Amino acid sequence: MKFRFVLTLLILSLLTSCTGALMNFAYNQADSYVIGKVDDYFDLNRLQKRTLEKHGAEILAWHKKYEIPRYSALLREISEVSKKPIDQSTYRLYYKKVEDRRNVLMRKIIPVAVELMLSLSEEQIQYFSEQLDENLEELKEDVELSREKRIEKRTEKILDNIEEYSGDWQGEKRKRLIAESRKIPDTLPPFYRHRLNRKKEILSLLRAKDKNELTKKMTTWLTNPRKGYDATYLRHFDEMVQSWEDFTLWVSANADNNHRDYFRKKLNELAARVDGLKN
């Protein structure tokens, strides 16, 4: 996880480093990009690709018309409330607003995903299993690092993300920022075990070809993931979410005016870019 209050709220964060023209191009090619990524996992046949292209174009047109204006408005709201330190209720309000926007998109995507999954052959399911194994192997390499090394890597990423959106933190404040970030629990080992279990579950669902059950599971996993976690991982997950909230509130309380101005400038620039996607 990253600097939650910033990157969770920036739904289009993959595009934040683009120029306006490049961002517009990337967004308008998003359906082709997604199809390419799906193909990487499932080795799609020609009919499956054509079906995804049709649905992808429809979803992109809907998203541009209805969701993009909401994204830019939300970014400007966040910029406005960031003039001063946020409290817990404000954090949770905007966290929920972002979750709501994400869930609207997920509910649009789920029927398309289920249709594709029901069309997969056994060979494609096996291919998917092999791709998951490759991803899990990469995750396993990080799990096998020492706990201290994992925390060091995570801390470096957190600092990079915070400073990308708020400018440099220096001196004693930087030391305190590092110390606070290290309090976030290391949940990578339980997350890895969760991913192993999830792989077995999804492969079983794909082979069962039960549309109702597949739709139910996908809806839970993508719009209310806590319900899909077992008790052990849920405990780690909730602890992590709470610690990220605490950390974000600490950052907000300890940011100076330069940090706030930098952050608001980044959000307003992004909102302007997002506005450009409506055209």
Describe the protein in words.
There is one protein chain. This protein has one domain (4-276). The chain starts with a helix and ends with a helix. With 279 residues, it is an all-alpha fold. It has twelve helices and no strands.
Structural class based on helices, strands and sheet pairing = mainly alpha
Largest sheet: none
Task: Report the total helices.
Answer: 12
What value does the Rg take, in angstroms? 20 Å
Count the strands? 0
Low-confidence stretches: 1-23
- Report mean pLDDT, rounded to a whole number: 87
Relative strand content: under 5%
Order of helices and strands: HHHHHHHHHHHH
What number of structural domains do the residues give?
1
Instruction: State the end-to-end CA separation.
Output: 32 Å
Query: Quick one: overall form?
Result: globular
Outline the fold blueprint.
Layout: H1 4-8, H2 20-28, H3 30-42, H4 46-81, H5 88-118, H6 122-143, H7 147-166, H8 171-181, H9 188-208, H10 211-223, H11 231-254, H12 257-276
In short:
With 279 residues, this protein is mostly helical. It has helices at 4-8, 20-28, 30-42, 46-81, 88-118, 122-143, 147-166, 171-181, 188-208, 211-223, 231-254, 257-276.
Features:
0% strand; mainly alpha; disordered N terminus; single chain
